[in-house]
Amino acid sequence: MGFGFIRKEDADSYSFIRIPKMLMTGRAFSELSSPSKILYGMMIDKMSLSLKNRWLDDHGRAFIVYPVTEIQADMNLSKRKTLDCLSELEAIGLIEKQKRGGGLPSIIYVKNFATVYEM
Fold first, then answer.
1. What is the rounded CA–CA span in Å between residue 98 and residue 63?
2. Which one, 52, 70, 94, 112, has the greatest CB density within 10 A?
3. Is residue 32 a contact partner of residue 41, using CB atoms and an 8 Å limit?
């Protein structure tokens, strides 16, 4: 397979997933696997659509609905690896899942990596 070179006029024609540099280089996130960091970037991307659609809970917090099967397909991961990534993000506190029951996928709150709140 031969890929062409990127030309100047091509540079703005791509859609990108942004991964915060702090997430990649910060000591606090050194234990996160690369797939988990990429997944967090994808979740941040989905948050923009949630905000646009006003997907807010009763407390005004934005959330996403990102089923495991969709994450698997988007990232080309096994179900086990997908669940591991979600567990890593949840364990470090970058996401919080809320089960809905009835076979519906969980609501996921994507937390701000740059802020820490005292509980």
1. 10
2. 94
3. no
